[in-house]
Amino acid sequence: MALSEFQLIDRVFAARAAARADVSLGIGDDAALLSVPAGMELAVAIDGLHAGIHFPEDTDPKAIGHKALAVNLSDLAAMGADPAWATLFLSLPHPDETFASHFADGFFSLAERFGVALVGGDTVRGPLCAVVQAHGFVPAGEALRRSGARPGDGIYVTGTLGDAGAGLGVVQGRLDIAAPDGDFLRNRLDYPEARLRTGRALRGVASAAIDVSDGILSDLGHILSQSGVGGRIEIGCLPRSEVLLRTLPEPDGINLALSAGDDYELCFTVAADHEPRLQSLAEGLECPITRIGRIESESGLRLIGPDGRIYACDGSGYDHFKGTDNGRDDGDH
């Protein structure tokens, strides 16, 4: 006998929701009752993942659950916020308890790592889709924004770029990369890491920040536009994993690092007088950081090759309404 909506919620989600002292009322009523600590601002992010658009049809449901939460935690990281709560809208073609249980395994495994409480949501019948709204706290006036970059600031990224885009290529059969390298790239696509510790450490250090969901060209472009500045990227400084360097010849690897989506690293800018402080913080961060360029007063983004010449990239980052397949749009709000 098929489960009802409420049976599915009770068995799979409500029973696993973590308790937090700032949750007066969680799952089970018409709305959650939540308390924001004094002196904090509430950061809210929402993203949806649709089958066949934001993840391949054959993706493990555990990975879908992980990613549905991770992409929202990445947005909070880019704001310098500490995560607290989440709500979940899950649309399923039919009430599949096995799928929902594996989805929940991925979702709650990540939620438990970062102390996130699921406080509500909805489960309906329809095309496979997961929408998460995440809530976090940031000290009043200390949130990282996209609008603070100034000429002379260094441009930095966390981790490595292009792996998830290569992983998508492997899944779609456009790239023939055997295991274990192919598995590594697919894992980077399916299980992104939200750089929450780094985002928290960047409060008071970074002048602007954004998460890299649609490709560094597109996402850095948002910082440049909202800050009213330009910039340059040194192509030779782009951080790429050993797997990407080993498996993709140039210029394919560089172009993926510049334009592929789904990396969920942080791109941020730091004023020159704060760069020594950033370097002293670097050892305590969860991933490497790399300076890839500088903010400039002249508008536009210039790509500079190792030979000092302008580099032309085949790609410009993902745009959901262009119908391209080199990444995905996370619809930052």
From TrEMBL:
Q: Which InterPro entries match?
A: PurM-like_C_dom (IPR010918), PurM-like_C_sf (IPR036676), PurM-like_N (IPR016188), PurM-like_N_sf (IPR036921), ThiL-like (IPR006283)
Write out the residues that bind Mg(2+) 3.
D30, D75, D211
Q: What class of enzyme is it?
A: transferase
Q: Which positions does UniProt annotate for Mg(2+) 5 binding?
A: D214
Catalytic activity line of the entry: thiamine phosphate + ATP = thiamine diphosphate + ADP
Biological process, per Gene Ontology: thiamine biosynthetic process; thiamine diphosphate biosynthetic process
Further information: Reaction mechanism of ThiL seems to utilize a direct, inline transfer of the gamma-phosphate of ATP to TMP rather than a phosphorylated enzyme intermediate.
Which segments constitute the PurM-like N-terminal domain?
Answer: 28-133
Name by which UniProt lists this protein: Thiamine-monophosphate kinase
- UniProt-annotated binding residues for substrate: H54, D262, Y318
Which family does the similarity line name?
Belongs to the thiamine-monophosphate kinase family.
